[in-house]
């Protein structure tokens, strides 16, 4: 017993000595975590350099854009061919991808030898050979009559410019093997966004944010970057870590000074590194009693497979002994232990370095996503990783240590780069088909200048109809006289009440106007909710509710006793016979209270006040919000003769010459006309530009067939149009993996404010995704791009249509004045105009384009509905008093 123990002890001691000896000798190859973190930081810097426009030309890590923008989403289908060139053999594959929800695929491959004369011959010969093999393959598979899309894995650095030429000819995808690996793994695990090869060569690719890729136009979405990290260190960046063996190996290689990182890592070189180390150690008398064999002197005698075999620790030293004996080295037990350890250090260093650069990529991915922790998957292929007994385990462990805040899954690519090439082709095919469908869905939203001009002309025609006595009754643009005949002159003063009904909020306001040198307007207001059941209940209930709110406000302000003059901003079409009489023509926007249409809203308000019998008010004016807006801006700028609202609804008013208003007596001076242009198109005159989505929104609205122009241009409907498009695209399988979620079915879920948020240029796609998530829409990165595109198409059309309408109005004003050039100010209100990131700009541009002879200034109105109503009341009061005297 004792003897056995002693023997074991002796052996352990022997082993320890040998290991210590090698450790000391190869001290420089054993990399601590600190060094690895440093390598990681260096590689991060290299990536940035490779991505930058100015730094790329001199960068060693080339960071080549692959033009692969999308990972498989499981909806790919079809038959694909793939050719795989770049590994040790040339392969042709046929891949069938099934769209069966189970993400299954079938792969049939055939191997072809690549004769030396072909590899070292010229390019034409090589490609002729490839074509011959492909032909043979298609014959064997009986595919000759078919025209299948072909993916081509070509695992050498390639500068690509475009992935697919045209969907009509077959897509030809040129795919790097790293990309192929990522795509193959991505088909099984949608989290996969890194592809890694550790074999004959080493390289990695990953999905980078487009906005960081200077070499490719566009900022949206992601694109796979083939790092070509094998060249890391070619500028000397790793010289402090390279040993004399690395240098010797490099000098003896086919491409000295190139691919220095790869030469420390890939299986093509590890055996040779081991050989060089053993040779030197032997020469120094540290191994094999100092006896060098011819085999040990021969380049390439130790290969990766030997290293792998020697490191099979479970098999003890037998493999090592056998291999060394074959090299005529007559190894002792000690020699075997030492050599085994040399192999371990060399291959471990490879795993360590690879882990450091991979960690750099993972960190970059995590930072791109602005995540503190990230879950991701790395797809891996390559002989060294797959066949070396310890390599994978070591790599995983070191990566996890270097980036503790990444939960990494390592997924082995089973069917290799051939399937990957097919997958890239399949995805490109899917994307091209999808693009076509999306373009088709959005095409009707792209309005040519010609069409917009037509819209302007039609608007002009309808405006004229509305002004003419004979046609006015049936006109869709009603052109309602407002009996507001003048703008404020600054002498207005006093305390006024104002009501604002017709928008999102119902408000009661107290407005104090001062004149003269202390000219100012002070306002106090209170917002009241109008519950849906009241908006859509009876008229009596609605007006009782309004009066209740007024009572609350008077109480709150402590002015219940004062009989103040009141201006009633009532933003619905009203036919007026005087400034304080307004018959509701029809509800618009969200209102639908019964027994109101055809009634005088001022009477209804008076009656409700009488019913309550608590206070009295002097109702002086009913005011449309457009008029209030114009008046508010007119108070500052006398040139303001147009009021525009782009909020919940869409409408315009402007000062028209009395002589043109046939339904009002008198030809002197001007009067403000509330166009109610929202009804434009109700006679079908713009049906040619209405889309199926507009029709769906219309049919689901409270007033089908009415307000067709408003339904294409205003805040109440834009989100709803977007929702209809999203539903359609989802039905076509182009979005949300073809699943229409419960929330997407909900009318009104997609509010117009989300358009503003999503279209904001400062917003990264990730934030778009978050907004969609809040709406219960689980989107991928690609989904978010599409949703943003849809929002853009809808809001742009809205702004352009609105601009075309406004161009008609300013042109009319110009003709009225009989001038070549018109200078005019438009007072604008409405949250869509004020908060949407592009609406106002596109609107202004359209007006400029369609009415080039008009110089239009846009002036934002501050609370036109309140201030404007008070100003109108003040003016009316003054005129009234003048009339009475
Ligand atoms: P109203 O027109 O109802 O008097 P607003 O001018 O404030 O009031 O417009 C409100 C409408 O503006 C909402 O119904 C909504 O459709 C739209 N909206 C709200 N927030 C935004 C936003 N951030 N961007 C664009 N539109 C918005
Ligand atoms: Mg408003």
Q: Report the count of strand segments.
A: 24
Based on Cα principal axes, name the global outline: elongated
How many helical elements? 31
* Ligands and ions found: adenosine-5'-diphosphate, magnesium ion
User: What value does the average pLDDT take?
Assistant: 89
Order of strands side by side in the largest beta sheet? 1-9-8-7-10-11
The end-to-end span amounts to: 132 Å
Radius of gyration, CA atoms, in whole angstroms: 39 Å
**Strand residue percentage:** 15-25%
Measured as a percent range, the helix fraction is 40-55%
Key descriptive features of the protein:
elongated, 17% strand, 885 residues, alpha/beta, six-stranded mixed beta sheet, binds adenosine-5'-diphosphate, single chain
């Amino acid at each position: 017993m004792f003897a056995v123990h002693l023997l074991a002890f002796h052996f352990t001691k022997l082993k320890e000595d040998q290991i210590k000896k090698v450790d000391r000798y190869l001290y420089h190859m054993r990399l601590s975590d600190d060094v690895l973190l440093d390598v990681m930081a260096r590689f991060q810097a290299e990536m940035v350099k490779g991505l930058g426009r100015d730094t790329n030309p001199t960068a060693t890590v080339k960071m080549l854009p692959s033009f692969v923008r999308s990972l498989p989403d499981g909806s790919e289908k079809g038959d694909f061919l793939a050719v795989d060139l770049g590994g040790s053999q040339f392969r042709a594959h046929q891949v069938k991808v099934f769209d069966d929800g189970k993400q299954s695929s079938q792969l049939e491959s055939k191997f072809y030898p690549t004769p030396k004369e072909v590899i070292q011959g010229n390019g034409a010969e090589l490609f002729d050979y490839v074509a011959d093999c492909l032909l043979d393959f298609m014959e064997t598979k009986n595919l000759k009559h078919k025209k299948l899309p072909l993916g081509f894995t070509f695992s050498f650095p390639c500068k690509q410019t475009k992935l697919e030429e045209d969907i009509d000819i077959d897509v030809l995808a040129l795919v790097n093997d790293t990309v192929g690996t990522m795509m193959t793994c991505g088909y099984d695990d949608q989290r996969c966004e890194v592809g890694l090869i550790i074999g004959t060569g080493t390289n990695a690719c990953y999905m980078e944010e487009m906005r960081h890729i200077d070499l490719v136009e566009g900022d949206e979405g992601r694109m796979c970057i083939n790092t070509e990290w094998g060249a890391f260190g070619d500028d000397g960046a790793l010289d402090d870590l390279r040993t004399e063996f690395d240098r010797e190996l490099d000098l003896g290689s086919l491409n000295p000074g190139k691919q220095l990182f790869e030469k420390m890592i890939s299986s093509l070189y590890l055996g040779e590194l081991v050989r060089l180390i053993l040779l030197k150690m032997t020469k120094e008398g540290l191994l094999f009693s100092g006896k060098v064999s011819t085999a040990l002197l021969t380049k390439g005698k130790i290969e990766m497979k030997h290293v792998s075999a020697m490191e099979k620790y479970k098999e003890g030293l037998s493999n090592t002994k056998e291999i060394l004996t074959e090299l005529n080295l007559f190894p002792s037990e000690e020699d075997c232990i030492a050599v085994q350890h040399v192999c371990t250090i060399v291959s471990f260093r490879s795993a360590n370095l690879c882990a450091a650069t991979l960690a750099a990529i993972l960190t970059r991915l995590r930072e791109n996503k602005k995540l503190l922790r990230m879950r991701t998957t790395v797809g891996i292929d390559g002989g060294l990783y797959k066949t070396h007994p310890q390599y994978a385990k070591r790599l995983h462990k070191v990566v996890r240590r270097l980036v503790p805040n990444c939960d990494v899954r390592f997924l082995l690519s089973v069917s290799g780069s051939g399937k990957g090439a097919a997958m890239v082709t399949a995805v490109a095919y899917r994307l091209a088909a999808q693009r076509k469908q999306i373009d088709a869905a959005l095409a009707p939203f792209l309005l040519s200048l010609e069409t917009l001009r037509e819209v302007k002309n039609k608007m002009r025609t309808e405006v004229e109809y509305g002004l003419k006595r004979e046609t006015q009754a049936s006109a869709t643009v009603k052109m309602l006289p407002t009996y507001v005949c003048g703008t404020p002159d600054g002498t207005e003063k006093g305390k006024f009440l104002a009501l604002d009904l017709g928008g999102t909020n119902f408000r009661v306001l107290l407005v104090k106007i001062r004149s003269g040198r202390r000219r100012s307007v002070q306002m106090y207001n209170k917002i009241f909710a109008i519950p849906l059941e009241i908006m859509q209940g009876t008229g009596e209930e609605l007006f009782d509710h309004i009066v209740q709110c007024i009572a609350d406000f008077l109480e709150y302000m402590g002015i219940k006793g004062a009989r103040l003059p009141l201006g009633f901003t009532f933003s619905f079409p009203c036919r007026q016979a005087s400034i304080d009489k307004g018959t509701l023509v029809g509800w618009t926007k969200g209102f639908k209270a019964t027994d109101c249409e055809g009634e005088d809203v001022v009477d209804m308000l008076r009656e409700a006040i009488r019913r309550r019998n608590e206070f009295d008010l002097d109702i002086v004016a009913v005011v449309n919000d457009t008029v209030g807006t114009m008046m508010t801006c007119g108070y500052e700028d006398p040139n303001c003769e147009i009021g525009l609202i782009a909020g919940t609804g869409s409408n315009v008013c402007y000062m028209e010459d009395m002589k043109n208003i046939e339904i009002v007596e008198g030809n002197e001076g001007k009067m403000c006309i509330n166009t109610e242009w929202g009804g434009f198109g109700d006679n079908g005159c713009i049906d040619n530009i209405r889309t199926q989505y507009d029709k769906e929104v219309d049919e689901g609205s409270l007033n089908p067939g009415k307000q067709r122009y408003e339904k294409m241009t205003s805040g109440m409907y834009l989100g709803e149009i977007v929702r209809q498009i999203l539903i359609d695209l989802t039905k076509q399988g182009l979005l949300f993996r073809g699943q229409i979620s419960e929330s997407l079915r909900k009318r009104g879920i997609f509010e117009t404010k989300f358009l503003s948020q999503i279209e904001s240029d400062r917003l990264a796609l990730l934030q778009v995704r978050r907004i969609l998530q809040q709406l219960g829409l689980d989107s991928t990165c690609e989904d978010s791009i599409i949703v943003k595109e849809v929002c853009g198409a809808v809001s742009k059309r809205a702004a352009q249509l609105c601009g075309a309408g406004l161009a008609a109005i300013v042109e009319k004003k110009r003709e009225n004045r009989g001038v070549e050039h018109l200078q005019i100010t438009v007072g604008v209100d409405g949250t869509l105009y004020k908060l949407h990131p592009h609406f106002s700009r596109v609107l202004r541009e359209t007006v400029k384009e369609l009415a080039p002879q008009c110089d239009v200034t846009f002036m934002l109105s501050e609370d036109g509905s309140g201030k404007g109503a008070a100003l109108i009341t003040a003016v009316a009061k003054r005129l009234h008093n003048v009339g009475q005297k």
